[in-house]
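Worked example (supplementary).
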Amino acid sequence: MAEGSQDKVVRVASGQGFWGDWLEAPRRQVEGGQVDYLMLDYLAEVTMSIVQKQKERDPRMGYARDFIGAMESVFPAVAERGVKVIANAGGVNPMACADAVLAAAGKAGVRGKIRIGVVTGDDILDRLDTLLAEGHELKNMDTGEPLANIRDRVLSANAYIGSTPIVEALQRGANVVITGRSTDTALTMAPLRHEFGWAADDWNKLAAGIVAGHILECGAQCSGGNCLHDWRNIPDLANVGYPIAEARADGTFAITKHPGTGGRVSVPSVTEQLVYEMGDPHAYITPDVVADFTSIRLAADGENRVKVHGITGGPPTPFLKVSIAYRAGYKAVGSLVYSWPDAMEKAELANRVLRERLDRLGLKFDQVLSEFVGATSTHGPLAGDGREAPEVQYRIGVRGGDRAAVERFTREIAPLVLNGPPSVTGFAGGRPKVEEIVAYWPALLDKRAVSTAVSIVE
Amino acid sequence: MNVRLLDIAHARSGDKGDTANVGLIALKPEWYPVLSQYVTRDAVAAHFQGQITGTVVRFELPNLGALNFLLHGALDGGGTLSLKTDAQGKVYSTALLRMVISVPDAEAQALGLPAAV
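After joint prediction of all chains, the assembly is encoded as:
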């Protein structure tokens, strides 16, 4: 079939919705039926700081190590059947990630058949001071604070980059593309742009690719996972099928999954994913295009198949979003379980006792938060008063800049077992751990300050 | 007639910083106008009073039979800063579905809306 033909269908399969998602999914996606691309999304907002810390300890680390196992499980499909893999598994060290994939390919005897496109340029950590000196303020998008307030605590800084370097890697013959902090949606849109030759200003088609990316980026969350609609009747979640986008050159696509898998692809399941983490639906901003989610039309198209069409978009903004991670103090959370009778009253008394003790110790925290799990922790007073609960988990957390104060707090919970209210249990596991908080600082940066590069390694 | 959102809608929620979003989706397309008319920004702000520190913003998606609400200041700082069990706002969705709205009897009956028990 000719390029751009209306008959040509490109199948992009989602095999990972975050770092920690189902290890089985990538292999199931390439073995369950025909797919052209396997898209693996590993990076959440906090992930970059985790991989940055790993790279500081070992310069060969700093990427999503699960990806190596995923690649090992799909090497036969990539090497023998032409399936291409696109993943933002590179973290802060995409070249080391590519080296690890090549080493694994060598062991699997497929080294000569793996050609990796490595996308770099998103990592701006080393350039932060230069950028600030050049007048890029990198103010916090939510609070307006200047970056200078936390500059000395920054751990990682990455610009969210779009589809263009991924398209370039594919054009140069890569069958595996590894990026750092590219947007999740670009991982799906780029292969469609590449296959169909969509122009960089064909806003409606690029927007369609972004919507396909948004639907796929959380793995099974659009195909029956975490689906509230009719949840009791969603079949065979143990064998849940991850989603596949079957796209055409005109920007229409269908969401489906492999035959014989569990879960469900339906208009409600896809709608739930469309509204997930949504801001202003009129302007879903990406580096390539601004997509209008109020233009999306969904239609049931047979069993486990939803057609998506009508999508419009417009030109992008002059900015890239930047994700900066910084050290923001310490926290610890501990808990105890109180049982019937009067579980909630006992838990509330424990809370008063513990807080009085913390006060007397003179410990200073930025925040102390008490919750009563099983009663009011997630829905607050909307859930009633918890008086009838058969058991209540009393959960208390503190946050602050003084590590010693947080450490002292962790010693105050266990004593309640013997010197607080009765009917208490659930303290196994010992004292809570003090965690250093790595917080997230979103900012905008002039696109012209970021240039990406593609290297081919094999 | 009183109608509980759980009986006429489904929902999913997520986070962006200290903001939770709740997408509220009509169970039947013909019920979307009920959501649009009665699940107002002010009604949702009142529903979550005391639980969020910021404002509520509402967007309409008639194409999906859905409303999108942004609940600012809902997550104790959000992300890794948050001490909440639901630090990422995953179950604000079902908290919104607890809400009860009042729909004129004739309209509710014409649309076959289930009455809240």
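Two points are worth noting when inspecting this output. Chain B touches chain A at residues 10-18, 21, 23, 25, 27, 47, 50-51, 59-66, 68, 70, 76-81, 83-86, 91, 93-95, 98 (CB under 8 Å). Chain B has a mean pLDDT of 97.
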